[in-house]
Amino acid sequence: MLTWYATFKRQPKPTSKVRAADYYRYTKLLVETGVVDTDLLDKMVADLEPVITYVGRNSALRDSPSSFSPPCPYCGDSSDIAPDMNDMPFFDEGNVEEDLVKQYRLNHEKLMAKHAEGYWLCEHCGKVTGWWEFMETTKDENGKWMYTDAARSLWDWFVTAQRSSNPHDRAVAFERIVEFVHGSGPQSNWFIDGGLNTIDRIKSMIEERA
């Protein structure tokens, strides 16, 4: 059975985030008139999708590395979403595919000595990537791995913000994401231009108009 993890399998590093100007305009209209600008909300949610799916993928691979195949850092290939079609199977002390060990002539004991947390084998290029090595590829510009313990909740809020037929529910879900972002410290820059500074400025605007 497919898990929610499969959603994230091919996600590259994000190239967009919520624009500060968009969030300010959206909030200003909502505070002053109570109207949800659904077009602007759609745009901001779309801007969030790449980073939320990327962070979700990394979080899933950190917690359950054998759940699905990540893209190979060397050749870029990744698996189909079906668990029985792994192109980057994961090996650790409790999970060894003997047929692949023989086929690729892997020295599993030696590889485990080098990669204590386990490793992935790319069946396309034949190269091995350790758990730590892969997580290093997810770093942001400040050298921080892009993952969160709240990935599942973040994803659920995002789905509601993206798909609910009720504009109020969508707006509430988006604000739940912003609340998470605000509490995430330096990670807030992954999601919104200006990060904490932008959110704090907008919160001050809301308080002034309350």
Describe this structure as you would to a colleague:
It is elongated, with a radius of gyration of 20 Å. With 210 residues, it is mainly α. A 3-stranded antiparallel β-sheet has the order 1-2-3. The protein is built from 8 helices and 3 strands; from the N terminus they run H-H-E-H-H-E-E-H-H-H-H. Helix 2 runs antiparallel to helix 6. It has helices at residues 20-33, 38-63, 98-103, 108-114, 131-136, 151-163, 167-182, 195-209; strands at residues 90-91, 119-121, 128-130. The protein has one domain (4-209). The relative contact order is 0.16. Mean pLDDT is 88; it is low at 79-85. The termini are far apart.
Rounded to the nearest angstrom, the distance between the terminal CA atoms is 49 Å
Biggest sheet: strands, sense, closure?
3 strands, antiparallel
- Characterize the quaternary organization of these chains: single chain
Number of strands: 3
Count of the domains: 1
Poorly predicted runs of 5 or more residues: 79-85
Note the beta-strand portion: under 5%
The amount of helix comes to 40-55%
Mean pLDDT: 88
Dominant shape: elongated
How big is the Rg? 20 Å
Protein structure class = mainly alpha
Number of helices: 8
Taking strands numbered 1, 2, ... along the chain, how are they ordered across the largest sheet? 1-2-3
Helix/strand order, N-terminal first: HHEHHEEHHHH
